[in-house]
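Let's sit down with a protein and look at its sequence and fold side by side. Which protein we use is up to you, so please pick one and set it down. Label the sequence line and the structure token line clearly, so we can match residues to local backbone shapes. Go ahead whenever you are ready, and we will take it from there:

***
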Amino acid sequence: MNDIDPEILKLAKRDYGENCELARKTEWSYTFKCGPKSYCSISRFLAEKSLEVRAGEIRERWPEWDLRQRIDFTSNWQTKRTWTPDDTEILELIMADGDDNVCHSCTRAFLKYPDRDRAVNFLISRVSDCALQHAPLNYFQALGMAGDKRAVAAIRLFYEKYKEAVENEVTIGVPEDVFRGLIPYFPYLTAAGALFKITSSTEYEEGIRKFFNHPNEQVRWWAEHALGVEGPTTSKRNAEYRKKG
């Protein structure tokens, strides 16, 4: 497939490696094959700075879209660098008629919404009544960035559950698969990171920092990322990333 602007392909190769080849193009995104089993995606809203959408068009098409089509739109639309009155209307449509899968796919958009109080209340309600089959990590991250203390109680319920599961490492050891293993490192660190951003409490900071010396590199990176610091693991990965460019 070669139906792509050379500058966009150049962007993909810069970020994901010289082996990137266009595998699929949708109305809202480009998907690249970057290795035998490796794929990456770039939003058209990021790649094409002039791309805009009208609320009336999305409102008309929304009832016709299935879940996959809705998420393809929302997850890519949320990356827009600008925010317009049309985007406000689109987000209100999503809030009114979007399930958790849809809302969870575009949490960054809520941070751009003009009515911050309404956006925060909406995200808190989604955390409290979450119907997702996986951890609502995007909700945690958005609420952490919003910094509103009203979110603490909702996130804390998940944090306590993840903390208890993480402490089982003492008994069962470090799993080979830290992504899908029995210990929820990433959910725990994400929840703790959000709570730290909101409260600045040493409880959460210390709970994260103890993973800075974890034997698994991925867990160390998650911990550094949770506190937003460039520790040894993040520095190493950033250096590798710069070499790609």
Notes: Strands lie at 21-25, 29-33, 39-43.
